Amino acid sequence: MFPVALRHCASRLPFAAAFWALPGVAHAQPPPGAPPPSPLTSSISSSPGGELDPNSPMQALPDLGVAWPDPTAAAPAAPGAAPATGPTGKAQAPRAAIDAGVAQRYTVVLEGIDAAGGTALRARFDSVSTLVQSAGKPANVAQIDRRATEDAETLRALLVAEGFYDAEVDTKVEAQPDARIRVRLIATAGGIYHFSSVTLPGLDATAGDAPALRAAFTLKPDDPVDADKVNAAQASLKAALGERGYVFAKLDDPQIVVDHDAHAATLSLAVAPNGVKRFGHFELRGRHLFTAQHIAQIARLHPGDPLNAKRIDDLRRALIATGLVSTIQLTPIQTADPQVADLAVRLEPAPPRTVAAELGYGTGEGASLQLSWEHRNLLPPEGAVTFRGIVGTQEQALSANYRRSNFRSRDEALTGQLAIDHQKRPAYEAKTASVSAGIERQTNIIWQKKWTWSVGGQLLASDEKDVIQATGQPRDRTYFIGLVPLSLAYDGSDNLLDPTRGYRLSSHVSPSLSFQNGTFGYTIVQLDGSYYVPVSRKVVLAGRLRFGSIFGPDASRIAPSQRFYSGGGGSVRGYGYQDIGPRDIDNDPVGGKSLNEFALEARIRFGNFGVVPFFDGGNLYSSTMPRLTGLRYGTGIGVRYYTSFGPIRVDLGTPVNPQKGDTRVAVYVSLGQAF
Fold it and tell me: How many CB atoms are located within 10 Å of the residue 588 CB?
């Protein structure tokens, strides 16, 4: 509590002192000449002067030859005297004795805090309590006394921080029948103090911004004098000033004036806005990971634009998204022009190389191991080169990929790839060499964009083996194909890997020209849509639709690797990969010119785990436009383990109306939701 001289008058203290640098809890002192209280009594003084030396255990009194009396032991009853009684009038058993020289375990009990935060206050106390932090180590009475004294002051400071300025804390130590010691901290919180006024001198210098900034300071008159709320209001005001361009604004420490008679306080927080600034240019400091020109290309800041905290934070996130930066310092600096500020940029590089491995399995797709090596800045700026290899039961591949991020403008990427690939599927076997390049605007975990697109070109040579559908006769054909793949997508969901609400739409169009026994063209079109609806805090319903068509010659003229296929973990679960649709005489799939698919699932989450019952359907057709006939259905259940980077998915499915040769159970393992 405050010293008596301040107890019944207003006291003006800086905010930090008023909440944390409080004097110790006062306790009654023994009368002059009286011996000091023994630490074995049931009430331990928490006054600063009452500490005992833990290295001086109780000894027999010198020269007397008698042991130190135990004040907790019951005094012998006088002959014929009635047994001692408590407030209820019932006889009380003698209190257990505490052996001062023996280290013992103890428990800590807080009393009287329910009206002052209860569980939250207990959690905060436990995080800083000397008694609690050392509870696992036995201690003698002197050590327990010292810890209790410290914790009494700690608990009172926590109560004052929540507005209980009249709080008092007493400590008691009691022996228990189980040989443990119980330490009781008994709080008398008193009434909570409230702010009678809250002022922000200097804020009027912001002119028209003043009302909004004043509203950003969330503390108002009649609010409790609570340290957390004061700190939160101060942080909110600081952020609002930065967002409105006052990047050099200064806030003094809040000044608290406490009136104990009125059980109230006033708060004054002086504000120096220091004016709105316009952006000048970037000033590079330290190692020059990027040029100022490239940073300007990434930033959404141009000379003369308002310099505010939102745009600075936007640049910080964009630099993080490059994956090349470990430490970022963006500091506004004043220029000779009082209305202009430059932005100093200091970057420390992150390790540029990554070696990764990925193991996957799917029924019909088999097992595969993917290894990759990446250098994210081999060709600066932001020119990433990745070498990747795949070894699997049905696919082997090698590729070299180039990606130049923030190519012509922010969020655009220039891509290129050289690849050789061997696939052996039930429908075909293909050995392919390809080269491709493109420009795209794609999303990522940090920047989940609403609109994404891509434009590219691809040349491939592919030797492909399949069979004639009607006769089952094998054939081997070589294709030379040129494609112009285009895509446009809209993402209105709330999460990239684990959406819980919103919808997504995407379209893919690939005009193609094929050279195989003559020249012919065709165009591949695919449309996808998905929708997510939360029905409770733990349950999300999700649905997906897909339609596809190939406009051009008969499917038999089109390379088998370019046709549509259905079935598998990203398609109709319950069926093997590519197992749905028309089949040849040997019951192997042959692909189709059109498809339609749907999927429905309920995502039920329990903490880090979840279960997902699902029902899928779809089919392939030899016609150009898909029909709603002959659908194959699959159902099953999945398990999800939710990590910080997205859910790990394991789905177990079975076909509802299988065709001949379909497996009864299909398993799929991957990262992220099915759609």
Answer: 18
